[in-house]
Amino acid sequence: MHYIDGFVAAVPTANKALYIQHAREAAVYFKKHGALKLVECWGDDVPEGALTSFPKAVHCKDDETVVFSWIVWPSREVRDAGMKKVMAEDAMNADNNPMPFDGGRMIFGGFQMVVNE
Asked: What is the average pLDDT value for the chain, to the nearest integer?
C-alpha cells in the first residue's frame, strides 16, 4: 500500500497566494523524486477545540489559517529515498525558497496506509 506524509501548519492568511505558489513549486520536486501526488488544503471549517484541535496543535494566530496537506508515495522506501533527494535540491533550500509560514509550528509525520476504500 501507499505511504503518506501528512502535514498541518498555520499560514498567515495574507500569504495564501504565496503559499499556493510555494506548494505548486514544491510538488514538482516531490513528484520528480517519486511522490505520486501532493495535496494542499486551505482551512475553511476548522473549529478551535476545547481540549485539542488543528488550530491548537499549530498555535494558529488570529491572522492565520490552518492548512492540511499530504503527499502520497508508492512506499516507505520510495518516500525515504525521495525525501532525501528533495531536501538536497537547491531550489528547496530554505535560503533559496523560504517557506511563507513558520515551519517551526508545523506538525508532520509519516503514515502507513491501512485502509483505502
From this structure: 94
